[in-house]
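Continuing from yesterday's entry. The apo prediction looked reasonable, so today I'm repeating it with pyridoxal-5'-phosphate included to see how the binding region is handled. Same sequence as before; SMILES copied from the compound registry.
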Amino acid sequence: MKNHDSAFARSPEPLLDLAALRADTPGVERVVHFNNAGSGLMARPVLQAMLDHLELEATIGGYEAAAARAAETADFYTSLAELLGTGPGNIAYAASATHAYTKALSAIDFRPGDVVLTTRNDFISNQIAFLALRKRHGVQIVHAPDHPDGSGVDVDAMAALMRAHRPRLVAATHVPTNSGLVQPVAEIGKHCRELDLLYLVDACQSVGQYPLDVEEIGCDLLTATCRKFLRGPRGSGFLYVSDRALAAGYEPLFIDMHGARWTAPGAYTPVATAARFEEWEFPYATVLGCAAAVRYALRVGLEPVAQRTPALAGRLRGQLAEIPGVRTLERGPARAALVTFTIEGWQARPFKAALDARGVNSALSYREFAQYDFTDKEVEWCLRLSPHYYNTDDEVEAVVAAVAELAGSAR
Ligand SMILES: Cc1ncc(COP(=O)(O)O)c(C=O)c1O
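Holo prediction written out below.
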C-alpha cells in the first residue's frame, strides 16, 4: 500500500501544519468550503485509498480485491476503536448515520407504553423514527426541557424524567444539525449508568470535531457518519455497540448471514461482535476511504482540531453578528463549528445561491429540520456555515465580506 500521509511526511509531529494540511486537500483550491457539517472535503490519502481500491477491483475482481485488502479493511475497526476509546469488535460499518441509528432502534423490543426519553434538539430523522415507533408500537415520546440559559437540555430535569418514567431508551444528539449547540451527553450518560438505562447518542456532527470517549459518555450505542468532520466519503457511517449491549443480546431486527450463523434449519446465532449490525455486502472502496479518513484525523490530532475548529467558527460567528440585518442563532456557552444565522430581506434559496456564486459553500436549514428549536427562535430558515480546521482566517474574512455585501443589497 502506498504511503499517502504526505502532510505528515513533512511534519512528523504536526500541531496543525496548516500549509501541509491544505496541500493535502485538493478542494481548497476551488472553493471556500464552509459546509463541513454537510460533508467535509476529503484529504488526498482518503481519495487515493478509494481510487486505488476501485482500480484493484476492476483489475483483479471485487472479491479478490477485498481479500487482498483485508488488513486495510480491518483498520476501519481498529482506527475507529482508537478514536472512540473502545475495541474493534464494538464497531459496525453502516451506510449512513441514519442507517446505523435505525438498525440500533430495530434491536430494541419496544412494547406499547414504553418511553423514549429524548431532547428537543435531537436530529430530525431520529425524531421521525421515534414518531414512527409511536405509530407502530405505541411508545411514548418524552422530551426533556431545555435549560433556560441556552446551554441545551436541562440535565437535572432529564434525570428526574429518567427516574419518573424508567425509559426503555434515552436518546441524545451531541451536536444537532441546525445549530452549534453542544449537548452535555456525558452528564446525561452518568445518570443513565446510575439508573442502568439504555443510552443512544448521535455523534454525527461531533465526531472528527471533538475527541470522543464512549466510556466517558457512558453510552450503550453511538452513531455517526464518516463524511462530515471526519472528512471521509459519502455513503458511510458507523455504529458503536457497548460490550454491555452485546452481552445483553441486542441484535437488529433483520440480521443477515454476516451478522448471524444459520446453525440449524430452525435456528441462528448472532455473531459475538458488533458485526451483527452489519450486512454481508460492503462498499469496500468506501470503507477503505473511511479507514484512511479516521487515521488521518488521528494523525492530525483531535485535541488540536477541537481547539482550532470551534474557535475559527467562533470568530466567524462574532464577525457575522456585527453585520446589520444578520442575526446569529447560537445560544449557550459551548458552541461547535456550526454557525447559523438569518439575514433580513432575503429568501433562503436566492441567498444561498448568491453565496454559491461567490465561491462559498454553505447549507440551508428549515424549520422542518428543527421543529422545537426554530419555533423557539422564531425562524423559518437559516443559513449554516461550518468551517473546519483546514479553513483559514482569510477565508473567514472573505465569507464575512460576502455576507456583508449581500446584507447591504438585500432583496
Ligand atoms: C446530528 C445529525 N445526526 C444525524 C445525521 C444524519 O446523517 P446521515 O445523513 O449520514 O444519515 C445528520 C446529518 O446531517 C446530523 O447532522
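Comparison notes:
- Residues 302-321 form the longest helix (20 residues).
- Residues 96-98, 123, 125, 173, 176-177, 202, 204-205, 225, 237 surround pyridoxal-5'-phosphate (CB under 6 Å).
Will overlay with the apo model tomorrow.
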